[in-house]
Amino acid sequence: MSELTVLYQEVRTCQKCILSEGRTNAVPGEGPEDAEIMFIGEGPGFHEDRQGRPFVGAAGKYLEELLAKIDLTREEVYITNVVKCRPPGNRDPEAEEIEACRPYLDRQIELIRPRLIVTLGRFSMQRYFPGASISRIHGQPKRVGNVIYYPMFHPAAALHQPRWRSLVEEDILKIPELIAKLDEIEEAEPDIPQAEQLSLF
User: Fold this and answer.
1) Is the pLDDT of residue 171 over 60?
2) Which residues does residue 81 pair with via DSSP β-bridges, in sequence order?
3) For position 154, which CATH number holds?
4) What's the pTM?
5) What is the extent of the structural domain holding 41?
6) 12-49 burial by CB neighbour count: b if 16+ within 10 A, else e?
7) How far is CA 16 from the centre of its chain?
8) Strands 147-152 and 116-120, bridge-based pairing
9) pLDDT tens track for 86-120
10) What is the rounded distance in angstroms from the CA atom of residue 92 to the CA atom of residue 123?
């Protein structure tokens, strides 16, 4: 049994915060254990809670459409959320709930070692871009060591507010170039620990 599978079992029985009391299923995440790209959303919704899988509702369908634009399928990327249980009524996750789930997300990142982490929405963005506004920094990558952090609007935001849709689609189209740029950087300077903004576009 892989370490990630063991982690999933821990998540499914977790009772660290109040969200565990109302869940049908915890939603650890899914995707290849060696995924190059990880998408981190906010929290499970109604359909995710029922199925125990991330991004299976309308936002998930739209995410799959976005991935298809860059010739990827959801089976090729890793998808998870900052909180693993559905907040009541799909409310925003609270700080203590995000903190309770933080060790699970830390461990997922440590085990999968993605090269590109795409934050979907402001709650996952805050983890890597504290204090920033998503409307200002979406689509602007930041590199820390050999990982690129890339903030995007949540697909649900584009569904609810059509004006964000073109921005979301522009941002997703930059991903192949980000990966190519990371290949170049790693070839030239294999292990650079500092953070830097990547001016690619």
Assistant:
1) yes
2) 41
3) 3.40.470.10
4) 0.93
5) 3-197
6) bebebbebbeebebbbbbbbeeebbbbbbbbbbbeebb
7) 21
8) parallel
9) 999 989 999 999 999 999 999 999 999 999 999 99
10) 9
